[in-house]
Amino acid sequence: MRGIIAAAALLAGAQAAIDPIVIKVRRRVATAPFTSDNA
């Protein structure tokens, strides 16, 4: 049981660290011209 809690905490921490990076990349992609998203 403790392992599951530790794994969940690690996942939550990793997600909290990665989320701002993903948001920055998405904004950069959304504002960049001629990307695959808005082509």
Note the main attributes of this structure.
39 residues
Describe the fold and architecture.
With 39 residues, this protein is mainly alpha-helical. It has one domain. Helices cover 77% and strands 0% of the residues. It contains one helix and no strands. It has one helix at 2-31. The longest helix has 30 residues, at 2-31. The mean pLDDT is 83.
Brief write-up:
The protein has one domain. The chain is 77% helix and 0% strand.
| Rg for CA atoms | 16 Å
Overall geometry? rod-shaped
Largest sheet: none
Give the tally of β-strands: 0
Mean pLDDT rating: 83
Estimated share of beta-strand residues: under 5%
Helix and strand topology:
Layout: H1 2-31
